[in-house]
Structure formats: structure tokens, C-alpha cells
Amino acid sequence: MPSIIQLLPDHVANQIAAGEVVQRPASVVKELLENAVDAGASDIKLIIKDAGKSLVQVIDNGKGMSVTDARMCFERHATSKIRQAEDLFSLHTKGFRGEALASIAAIAHVEMKTKQDQEELGTHIVIEGSKFVSQDVAVLPKGTSFGVKNLFFNIPARRNFLKSDTVEYRHIIDEFQRVALAHPKIYFTFFHNGSEMFNLPPSSLRQRIVNVFSGKTNEKLVPVNEETEIVNIQGFVCKPEFAKKNRGEQFFFVNDRFIKSGYLHHAVMAAYDGLLKDGAQPSYFIYLQVPPNTIDINIHPTKTEIKFDDESALYAILRASIKHSLGQFNVAPVLDFERDANLDTPYHYKDLEGATPTIQVDGSFNPFSEEEKPNKHFTNTNSSYRRPESTSNWESLYLGLKQDSEEIDTMTFENETVTSSLFNNDEVEQAVHKTYQIHKKYIVNPIKSGMIIVDQQRAHQRILYEQFLTNITVHLASSQQLLFPLHLYFSNDEMQLISELKPSLTNTGFVFEETNDDSVVISGLPVNVSESEASIVLEQLLSDLHNGIPESSFSQNDTIAKSMARSLAVKTGTYLTEKEQENLVNGLFACKDPNVSPFQKPTFITMRVEDLDKKFAL
Q: Are residues 115 and 210 located together in one domain of the fold?
């Protein structure tokens, strides 16, 4: 029987490895930026075209590579950082597996130019799909330029799985921000399709955070600093009142490497316990320094997950340090210059006790005596009040009572007759049908066959969704003008999303008076959006669109209508008056599709009388 197990060719093995290392253009950006940082560069430039599908280029002024190293770096498992297995537990650099460049070269057209400082000439290498096309000597500046073109050109199936340019661009920005935040002393610049998106000069950690996001970020930050034998913690958390709906601005760095950790995130949320609204997410930038031999970073292909030796101690220290910083911020004394000193207790009265009032009683006073005795404490000669002369004619007060009572009895009888005749009429069904709210969540409404139970939140979502979708489509949205324009501040990438969505948002009723690099000025809002809800609606919309804006106009409008309906719909736990309940039920059944919410959840259920009879028959 012939053997069926065989070794894979190198180019096939590299393509398989690329499936783990290179998932999208952002993966290439991550690997190349980390290599540039490991090369000791002080100036790194990232250039991309068509969201990285056509070109990803990283230029650095690092130490460069020799001719031999330039050729060897594209071999599988070729690395300058590992000599033996024990080195995996004392890593101080980022790329160490030796798979990244080989995997990238297997699925793209790669052009590398590199030169060391002490050399006069550099090396220029061109590779297409793991095949060396050329290797020449060239006059180059110090450092390395690595260009990746036509990603997945030889794997069409993988290229078809890529998302839209907007989505891929968002992922590239995420990777760029992570590396830039981890290394504030390095000069980073970022160009997309010829436009400069980021220019980040060397700065302090706080200034780098402000430059990456927006100028208003500075006033949100609360510093966190803690040094222990287990871990050194520094960084910033945001004040509770600036918490957002999405989890965008949440960063953990361990030894200058970005990681994701649900366990550490839970520690941060525990420190904010009692300070946040339901569903709010705080922003934080936490930098942890731990001994390299206490962590294992080789447990995930993307190296974004780390295993700690003593997670419970790290959890407790992180929670306590953040809680301490937030406590210092909240407990800081506040000087009130508007306080009125005249309302303070005078100094010479502050230790005195109040005098006990005395009570005087006139024991000889008889309110039933016929003589009018003057009150020796209070006398008012000018009063118009006079005591009645006599009470002997009290029977006159009851004259005609019998006649009135007979009329009342007759009236009651007539009313009972009218009422009984009304209840015999078929029209009483309309008068009796009332809505009832249960647990501030469901609305019960009787119908001929039984009753319907409406979920008030889902029903309102359906109503608002169809209203917004109609307004966007027909361009007939009405706006309420604000007396004072509203200034809202966003990060750079959020402002790009708002700029793309601006035409659709205008059709919903938003009026943008001004759009800046990090803020918008809104002078008009949709009719059913209050001024306090404007920032909430836009934040929820940006959170829903974080993974990309749909390409087609209808899908884009649909997403905006769904997001705004979710934000503005009446929430579970809200009390509704009887009139509001009726309007909600009537509005739901006036919709084109009242059966489901915009998110395909049922809005109501029907219970027939027969179903109730079966329940009682048990």
C-alpha cells in the first residue's frame, strides 16, 4: 500500500501559515509596524491605498538589514530574537515567530529596500507569491522600506472575504492607534490615498493620547499610577460622566504590547462600580509593566492574548489603583465662590443652644359659654367676626332636606336606568376597551377574540424605525431649531464616520451648522430628539457603525433608522399614561409590518379566550 503522508511544498505551507498570520490588510500593517519598532526606528511612516488592498507600505529609519539578513528574513521560522526555547519566556520585543514576512510574501507582491547605517549601498528585493523575482544593490537611505501590493492576488477566495474599504480602513486605524499609543516617543505619520490622516510627533503619554483622539480628551483623563513588586501600573482612565455606549477607547498594554483581556476589563469595571449608568463603558489607557518570565504571550496567533502567572493578584491591584484614582478625583474639595455669607450662622451664635419656648394656658376659658370673654393674650377690636347670638334656631338648617333627598332618589333611579340601557347597547364595547400596563413593560389591550399583549419598547422601535426610514427616503424630515447651537466633540475616526453619514443624518432632521476636525456644531434636531439626547443618539449610531458603513444607500439609511429607533424608543420600566398606551398601540398597528421590531423580534402576542378557558379547565 503506497504512503499517503507527504511534506507540503514551502509555498503551500507559507500560504497556510498566512491564514493564521494575515487575515486582512490590518494584519500586514500590524506586523510591519512592529518590525519597524523592533528595528529601533524613531520615525515611522505608514502609507496605504484602497484600505490596504492595493498597497501597504511602512518606511522607517531603523538599523536596517545586511544583504544576508534581507534574504533570510523571508524564510519560514527565521527570526533574530529566538535562539532556544527558554527565550520565549524572556521576550522584550514584538515579532519573534519568524512567520510574518514569509506569510506576507506568499500571498502578495512584496518590495523591500533596506540599508544599514555603516554600509554605503543597500539591498532591493522583489518577491511575488514566495518567488524571488530580483535582488539588486541600490542607493538607499538608512532604514527599511517594506511595500506590500495586491494582497491575496493568488488566493481569490480570501480576497473575496475582505469587507468594504470602509471596514478594512477602520481595522487599519485600530492597529495603527495601538502601536502609536504603545510608543509615544516615536514619530508616526499615516497617509491614506495621498491624504495625511495622523501626524504624531514624539510626546508624553498624555499628549499622545490627546493627539490620537481629540483635543477634548485631555479634560476627561484621570491619571493612574501604582508601583508594586508584581506589576507597575501607569496610564489614564476617563471620568465617569464621559463614559460612552461603545467600547472603542479601551486599551491594555503589557510591556508595550497591546492585549485584550476580559479578566482585566472586569477589574476596571469593578473599580467603576456605582459610578456608571447602565450600559455605559468607560474609556481607559492602562500600561502594565511585569517581569517577562511571569507572562506567556505565545498562546494566540495574533499575540493579543497573554497568560499571567498570578492573575488574581493583578486583578486586585488594578481594581484598587483605579478606584483610588477615581476617589481622589471625586473627593477633591470644591471652592464655591457663589455662596452667600449672609446665610451662615454668626460666629458668636454657633455654640449657643436654642431657647425653649414657654406655653401659657388659660384654664378659665370656656368656648361654650354665652358670654364673650376677651382673650387676655390676643385681642382684636377691629375684627369683623362676630359670634352667633343664639343657637336655638338650629332646626332651620334642616328645612327642605326631605324634599331634596326625594329628588336625589329619583335622580339616582333615572341614572341607573340610563346606565343599564347603555350597557345593553353594542357600542359599549368601544367604551370598555381600555389598555393596561403591566410591570411598566407590557401593554394589554382587549379585543373581540381575547386580548393582545404588546412589548412597549419593541413596538415603539417599530414605529420610530418606519418614521425615520420614510423621512430619510422622502427627504421630508422636519427639524426643531435650537436657540443655542449644540457643540459635540468626537475623536478623529468618529468624525470621519459622521462626515460620511452627514447627508443621511441631514435627511433625518439634523442640521449641521459647522463641521470641524474634532467637533460638530448642530443647530437643529429631529422633532422627537431632545437636546440632551442628541449626543446619545450619535454615540449609539457610531457604535452600531463601528464595523463599517454599508456600501449601498438603502442599507446605510436602514442602519441609521434602526440605530436611532433603538436610542429613542421608550425603555422598559417607563410608566405610560392611558393616552400614551393607546397612541402606542394605535401607532403600532398603523405600521406596514407591526408584527416584528426592526431587529426581527415579535412586538406583540395574542391570547384568545379559548386559550384562557383551557388554562382554567386544568
A: no
